[in-house]
Structure formats: structure tokens, C-alpha cells
Sequence to fold (211 residues):
Amino acid sequence: MTIPPGSRGRLRILCLHGYEQDSTIFKTKLRQHIQILQDIADFVFVDAPNVLQPYDIDGMDNMARETASRMGKSLGRTIKGWYWLQSADPEKVCGLETSIAYLESVLETQGPFDGVFGFSQGGLMAAVLCALLEHRYEGLSSACTHARFKFAIIASGYKLSDSKWTYLYAKPLHTPSLHMYGILDSMIHASKSIDLRHVFANAQEQSTVGA
Fold:
């Protein structure tokens, strides 16, 4: 994918972290990329607005929180998410409207952005933003004046299954996109990332053997 130059001579890229992460963690993971591209791009990292509670979280963080709580301590960091699951089968998500409204304010106050880069749940949100900006769906405020992105980079992204939100994938997305995923990724199966890639009409992909 050839990334077009920014209108101001530099690219401005909105970066969306994954589930149970935050902007600081995502920025740390991308520090080498930021350094390589520092002469041509500005990366803007934002935190998801939803603070996850222990019952929203699967895995080690949940166990660690419970252990720390019994000892009268805390994990020392706030865990964020763009949405959380109210139920898995059928899928029903909560918090997505809050995230869309928040990101709309980011577009208006910190933009304009040339592109978006999202990882995992942040990759899902990157695709959501692409759909809203391209097709001006009702989930986007009529007051939003931000143009569609010139490009999207989505790592280990996937689609929402919640029937309330599947309309976002009803029409092809023409934002040029690069989709990266791990063939052996145990968290986001490659088939889910490929399924999202098929929504984009002008898509390229890059896969690795690992996660």
C-alpha cells in the first residue's frame, strides 16, 4: 500500500490500542516505527473511554486484580477497552456508542488525520471509523466534518458480530488499507482478520507465521 502524503507535508495518524491496553502501552510497542518515521509522520495515541471492571476482563489481569484486592492493593494501572461484551452468544457489546462519540471529538479537536492505525480491538475500531466516515452512517453525528481517511492500517483486526452493528459492513469500504495478522495468532484467529479484510475493496495484506 502506497501511503499518500499529508496535506500539511507530514502525515497525521490516529493510533488505537487493543483491549485491556492504553495509549502508553501502544506507543511503547510502536516506538521503533515512530522513530523510523519521525521525519514524515506524527502519531497521535488516545485512550479508549471505557474503564474495564474485573468482571469485564478475561485472563491474567482479572486474576491479578483479585489477588491484589485480597492484599489491599491494586494493579496500579487503569485497563481500557473500546467496548466490552455483555454476552458472547449471541454477541452483544456495550460501550461502543461512548467510544464512537469520543473518537468523533478526537477527530474534530485533534485532527484532521490522514490515516488510522489500530491493533486488535483498536483495529476493529479503525474499521468502524472508516465505515462511518465513508458512508456517513447514523452512528456518526451530523456535525462531524472530518473527511474519510486516506489510508487505514489494521493489525489483528476483526468484525463485530453484534446484530446491532453489522450494518457497518454492509457496503464495501474503499479506504486503502493494509491488514496484518498472525497465521498462528491464538487470540484473534487469522480467519477473523481475513473476514474483515474482505470488507475493504482496496486492501492489501501481510501475514506472519507467529502471533
